[in-house]
Amino acid sequence: MNNKVTDDLNDQLRALLDKESIRELVQAYCNAADRHDHEKMRSLYHEDAIDDHGAFFHGAAMDFIDKLPDIQATMRILHHNVTTHNIKLDGHKAEGEVYVLAFHQAEGGQGLFDVLIGGRYLDKYEKRDGVWKFSHRAVLADWVNIQEQTVVKLEHPFIAGSNIGRPGLDDPSYRFFEMFRRGKR
């Protein structure tokens, strides 16, 4: 194999590995948000990163993470699902547009209500010291479906005896997994 082919193949492999690392970063974000794992969330952003969650928060990502316990206090269920993920690489920097479906069950003045958001994450990533992290994340909503009274029925007989997911350390995944640990990527 000549050097040109080898160099091209190495470049393609590097791009593939970088994109996979970025995809894993985005998926780790969803897990950290859903499990209320603020230590893990902090590990996903560079120290000088910016986070723009619209009305909830705009500023330094570390300050956003400091506010997460208050933001998430009324949320009984968080369930983030990423779908289409477009990534453009430029050396040690990258940009990504990530489609997300995020379900929230929250407690309000009238009881539990549901919010289903179809939106996108507009991300900028940087690879520093060999690790990809968020340098800037903006969240936008393309559509929202709000149910003023929850339609979630976790006490329905159909699922009686099932393992039920929850935010925090009580989630069954922490008893099941040995390799996935709270606070770790």
From TrEMBL:
Gene3D superfamilies: 3.10.450.50. It comes from the Bacteria. InterPro entries: NTF2-like_dom_sf (IPR032710), SnoaL-like (IPR037401). Residues 15-137 form the SnoaL-like domain. This is SnoaL-like domain-containing protein. It comes from Endozoicomonas elysicola.
